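Severity: low
Component: inverse-folding endpoint
Summary: output formatting inconsistent between runs
Steps to reproduce: submit the following structure tokens with default settings.
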């Protein structure tokens, strides 16, 4: 990996100058952010918003209400987010864990490592979902590694792209230091840039990072 603090911050500064403050993660409460982290797997955020609106309109946006809901009813409310049967089960699992653990006030007292390990013990919660929750709901300095991060960093020549999740997460955290606000904005900016410009089929001519992008230079050669 060719990751270093100066290079990463240069990328961050360029993205921030271009796009500004992102105000992530969308959600009125930490619990709503947790729900969104589960539902956003393999779907666009606009679909997540529709599913959350379904829960809100039925007064079901609470862990107790989700636990008590019939699974087929819950799945139907989550239908806009896709994979709704799977997500209904995962969301119920998360809510049961959340309530049994004492809720946000108790969980927020746990050390970062212990809290992350507990989240990963919940059936259906993988590293990316856990880290979304850690960073945005619990405000912990955990750098989220998603497909957008891998795509951008590999095209810039920072990584090969096939690194293990934990190796890449820890490398980013080591270079950037424990900075919740930086991680929050950096991840949000990466997602925005990857969705709009650095797509699967990239729009290199419109990319503000094109002069320092290995993939972009190779494409022009």
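Observed output (run 2 of 3):
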């Amino acid at each position: 990996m060719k990751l270093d603090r100066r290079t990463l911050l240069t990328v961050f500064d360029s993205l921030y100058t271009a796009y500004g403050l992102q105000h992530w993660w969308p959600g009125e409460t930490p619990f709503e952010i947790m729900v969104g982290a589960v539902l956003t797997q393999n779907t666009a955020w606009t679909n997540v918003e529709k599913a959350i609106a379904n829960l809100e309109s039925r007064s079901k946006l609470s862990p107790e209400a989700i636990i008590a809901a019939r699974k087929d009813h819950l799945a139907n409310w989550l239908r806009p987010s896709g994979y709704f049967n799977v997500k209904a089960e995962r969301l119920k699992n998360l809510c049961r864990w959340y309530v049994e653990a004492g809720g946000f006030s108790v969980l927020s007292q746990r050390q970062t490592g212990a809290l992350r390990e507990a989240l990963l013990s919940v059936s259906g919660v993988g590293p990316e979902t856990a880290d979304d929750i850690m960073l945005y709901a619990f405000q912990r300095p955990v750098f989220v590694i998603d497909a957008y991060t891998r795509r951008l960093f590999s095209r810039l020549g920072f990584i090969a792209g096939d690194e293990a999740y934990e190796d890449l997460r820890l490398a980013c955290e080591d270079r950037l230091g424990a900075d919740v606000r930086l991680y929050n904005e950096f991840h949000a900016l990466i997602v925005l840039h990857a969705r709009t410009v650095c797509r699967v089929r990239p729009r290199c001519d419109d990319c503000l990072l094109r002069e320092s992008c290995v993939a972009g230079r190779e494409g022009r050669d």
